[in-house]
Specification:
Elements (H helix, E strand, L loop, with lengths): L1 E5 L4 H17 L4 E5 L2 H5 L8 E4 L2 E5 L5 H8 L5
Length: 80
Amino acid sequence: MQIKILGTGCAKCSKLAELTEAAAKETGADYTLEKVMEIDKIIVYGVISTPALVVDGQVRCSGRVPAIDEIKKMLQPGQN
């Protein structure tokens, strides 16, 4: 699975990256994690508020840092 954290590098963006990586490891998922910090690349996803979590090309959340259990659910195939 391809995971992207969209954000400019603020504390919330870093926290989302940290929690997402922990969640992915806990689920045993085969994943890659990329931090996208360029505004022009973030806009492509239609994200207005960062941080945002993108899983396999789909925005799963934006504008907040969800709890790790919620992130685990977002990492499951077919979740929104």
